[in-house]
Amino acid sequence: MVSPTPQVSSSSEVSPPKYQIVELDPDTKTKIKLYLFKNVQNVETIRDNIIQGVWECSAIKPRYIVDAFQVAVAANKAVLDEKRDAMVTRSVYSEILYNLSPTKNISQSLMKFGISKDTNILFCFLVTEERDTSTEIIPKIEGEMCSMKELFNFTSFEETKHVYKLNHMKEKCMERLLDLVVTKIATKSFVTH
Amino acid sequence: MVLAIGFEGSANKLGVGIVRDGQIIANCRRTYITPPGQGFLPRETAEHHQQKVHEVLKEALDQSGITPDQIDVICYTKGPGMGAPLMVCAIVARTLSLMWKKPLLGINHCIGHIEMGRLITNAYNPTVLYVSGGNTQIIAYDRRRYRIFGETIDIAVGNCLDRFARVLKLSNEPSPGYNIEQAAKRGKKYLPLPYCVKGMDVSFSGILSLMETKIDELLKTYTPDDLCYSLQETVFAMLVEITERAMAHCGSDEVLIVGGVGCNVRLQEMMGVMCKERDARVFATDERFCIDNGVMIAWAGALAYSSGTRMDFSESYITQRYRTDDVEVTWRD
Amino acid sequence: MDESEPQLLKQGAEARVYICKYLGRDTVIKERFQKKYRHPDLDVEIVKERIRNEARSILRCKFANIRTPALYLVDFERRKIYMEYLATNITVKDFIAKHGTANEHFEKIAKTIGETLRKLHDNNIVHGDLTTSNMLLIPKLQAGAEQIDPAWLAKGHVELVMIDFGLSYTDASIEDKGVDLYVLERALLSTHSNYEDLFAIILKAYVVSNPKGNANETIKRFEEVRARGRKRTMVG
């Protein structure tokens, strides 16, 4: 029914790579590359660089991220909307944060899903044949890289439920939560709930 | 070989038709036409039928060249329809049955349309769209019944068109629907109207009431031609859509359009486009057979009679409400 | 499954349904293609509205604890909805055709349908095209189980999923709900005419499943709608 998200493995490296790749809509020829970090020391530098547009990536609070797929759905819409000149925010990377958020308030969305003083960060890069900014940015992150498999350790079920206003959910089922969250993201632009 | 005569008068058409073994040998008709802005009422319509029935009958006998003694069965419309006009034909049929000493058979009007359409077009087992002033149904044959898969949940499509013609004060000559069709050909500007499909059912009352209440305002931006065009495009799209749904449901590749609205060329055209896309065929007839007539009653009667259906004289009443699926189809497998 | 090329799963009257890998998952793509018989403006409007209604109702259902496919992308430009592919499923229509009403789980399933419809209506969602083809049975994972039991259907471990919300709308009135039930009754009559008690069981479960709300009003309206159909004079 729901297939497990593929974990990228490469035989050439000694330890398996810890990032995860998801291919977006074929028309965009873009993939997302996700890295998870904990105990990040240079949060301010990261923030400043992203806000000034020097670093091209989204820095996401992993607390409300149930699965890499959730980011894929938000990023996919952001990249398609960029192509169609239909973005709500100024850059495709802020658009990802905006899409993740259930509210239409831009600054609230960026605050909620972006990082402020958080030391746990989920990085999302948009990668194409020609361009992969992660190679230059990742070495500059001063923190501990974790496997994407550990994402669930960073996720708060209750807080995610609260952020997405899913208080009707009774059972603690991650799969159901993901189902609701991605559906909310997919319908955000035309459904007010 | 069955020779049947049929009398139809359930609405404002009075028809007498004669068929001999599937050959139409007479098809005569008169239409009660009301002034612009007015619909037909039961009492006046019945009076019209009473006044015309002698001449139409005589015309039919002359046209066919038969004499009454050759007739096997006298058929009349039992329903559905308006009470008083139905009664006129029933009484005439009963009288003739006694006079000529011939058996009598009451026929369902809708079945008449379907069988007439199958006879004329040679459609084998079609999904039937039956559209007229009083009916809007999607019908398919299944286990000895013409089953209704979809229908209007309020007014009939023909009723919607007729009443809109009245709003615009279009002539009822030759028919309001015909005049809407002609006006629609000149229309250019499309006005979006409520589009209401529920499952395989449709609803037209929303469109009509919008048109009725906003007509003065609408006429400031749209010509009457534009409005006729928009109305047709919308209601016919709804009909084609539910027809296609029914076809998909039944796995059918034939559509037969019957009933007065069925002679609308734009409806036939739209149905044709839909059918082409799904490799199906559309069958329709022109105004001689689409519009209520006596032949359809004679032919449906001939079919029923040949397959053994009989009716006692005491049962020769009429019924204003008579559903298509009430009739047991004895003449098909 | 080919990773890139969508495979046609079903060609319906209004939509083509494909499956393919999308965002790394098995995905159903429902494309509402252009219908050439209707005016282009009307066509665009209808499709936009149906995509919107479908997506909105699917989300609303989730809030009402009614299982629906998860949505991955709603693309008005391409006239497509991308959603979760439920690999293991059987439509209620096929279930009845295969197993008949003598099946031990039939009554339970019919009841679940009634309860689900009641939940829909209590949340003011009207499906608009209730048929047994638009109801799927999928395996329900049993507590503690890691994998789907291959005998899920025989054991009655099923969950009901509602699909095809294109003709649906939210903020439904009593009349809309009555018509919704009428549409279902008609669909059952034409699809399962040999199982006459099916609708009765569904309707009973619909009424009793929530003692609080007022189903009687809806049932009354449903009966009125049905009577209207039977009594229509049908002139002409």
Annotated CATH architecture of chain A: 2-Layer Sandwich
Provide the residue-averaged pLDDT of chain C.
Answer: 90
CATH first level of the largest domain in chain C: Mainly Alpha
Query: What's the domain count of chain A?
Result: 1
Using only C-alpha atoms, the radius of gyration of chain A works out to 16 Å
Name the poorly predicted regions of chain C. none
- How many individual helices of chain A? 8
- Please give the share of residues in helix of chain A: 25-40%
Keywords (chain A): Nucleus, tRNA processing
Subcellular location (chain A): Nucleus
Family (chain A): Belongs to the CGI121/TPRKB family.
Pfam families (chain A): CGI-121
Task: Please characterize this protein's 3D structure.
Chain C: It comes from Chrysodeixis includens (Soybean looper). Chain C: Pfam families: Pkinase. Chain C: It is found in: Nucleus. The complex is a heterotrimer of chains A (193), B (333) and C (236). With 193 residues, chain A is of the alpha+beta class. Chain A is 37% helix and 13% strand. In chain A, a hairpin with a 7-residue loop joins β1 and β2 (31-38). The longest helix of chain A is centred in the middle third of the chain and has 16 residues, at 68-83. The radius of gyration of chain A is 16 Å and the shape is globular. With 333 residues, chain B is of the alpha/beta class. Chain B has ten helices and twelve strands. A five-stranded mixed β-sheet of chain B has the order 3-2-1-4-5, sandwiched between helices. A five-stranded mixed β-sheet of chain B has the order 8-7-6-11-12, sandwiched between helices. In chain B, β1 (3-8) and β2 (13-20) form a beta hairpin. The radius of gyration of chain B is 20 Å and the shape is globular. The mean pLDDT of chain B is 95. Chain C has helices at residues 40-63, 92-99, 106-122, 152-155, 174-191, 197-208, 215-231, and strands at residues 7-11, 15-22, 25-32, 71-75, 80-84, 90-91, 125-126, 135-139, 158-162, 169-170. In chain C, α3 (106-122) crosses α6. The mean pLDDT of chain C is 90. Chain C contains seven helices and ten strands. In chain C, the strands form three sheets. A five-stranded antiparallel β-sheet of chain C has the order 1-2-3-5-4, with helices on one face. Chain C has a three-stranded antiparallel β-sheet with strand order 6-8-9. In chain C, β4 and β5 (80-84) form a beta hairpin. Chain C is an alpha+beta fold and 236 residues long. In chain C, 42% of the residues lie in helices and 20% in strands. The longest helix of chain C has 24 residues, at 40-63. At the B-C interface, β8, β9, α7 and α8 of B face α1, α5 and α7 of C.
